[in-house]
Amino acid sequence: MMEYQELADRVKAVRERMAGAAARAGRKPGDILLCAACKAQPGDKVRAAAHTDIDLFGENRAQEMRDNLQAGAYLDVPVHFIGNLQTNKVRQVVGRAAVIHSVDRGRLLDAIAREAAAQGLVQDILIQVNLAGEQSKAGVAPAELRPLLERAAGHEALRVRGLMAIPPQTDTQEEARPYFAMLRDLFEQAISWRLTGQRWDTLSMGMSDSFEAAILEGATLVRVGRHIFGDRPG
Ligand SMILES: *Cc1c(COP(=O)(O)O)cnc(C)c1O
Q1: Coil/strand/helix, residue 172
Q2: Could you tell me the CATH number of the domain that includes residue 225?
Q3: Residue 234 counted as domain residue
Q4: pLDDT tens-digit readout, 86-119
Q5: 3 state DSSP class of 99
Q6: pTM metric for this prediction
Q7: Which ligand 1 atom is at minimum distance from the Cα of 208?
């Protein structure tokens, strides 16, 4: 299968760059998960990617995730939800996505908790932070992180695993580093608050054009789309 080999080679190249960045940072490559961001990719390409050396898939749209799940396209690879989530789509995502990365407001948090409780499970989530106050982007303002975590701590059906961010676009990876450092600092601060206790182990940051800088600043999960799948269709 031609498509498989090409995807496998691209994933291998990303893995090598991840390992290089990890080595520069004195970190173990195995401590950083590779999430294949597969938005808008056809199901057969997703299925081919499931055979490559990725750790998980990241989906942006509830409908695409449902279609791919129904088609069995992920095989046994876990899927995380990384896109903006509307409250009315929560039911389609809770219990299907292993982790929801994009929780950024109280009402969404409450809706996820309610659905998780109804399904009798504990949903793993990350809080998405808007590092630079960009109007066009989702995410909670850094100053609002603590109240949001206090609210999350009140829900037994939620387990906060860490933070996620999509920093402003920069021309070079070097320019992105201060944003990643800012998220790592917030992550460490939030751990010290000991609000949600359990298992803070995930710092989700870095995409195709910035994953090495993110790894240098402590990312434990990078979300890579174009470097694996090529340019998005459509
Ligand atoms: C699309 C997307 C990515 C991957 O972006 P690329 O630039 O294609 O690597 C990562 N995270 C989120 C939330 C995305 O929507």
Answers
A1: coil
A2: 3.20.20.10
A3: no
A4: 999 999 999 999 999 999 999 999 999 999 999 9
A5: strand
A6: 0.97
A7: 9
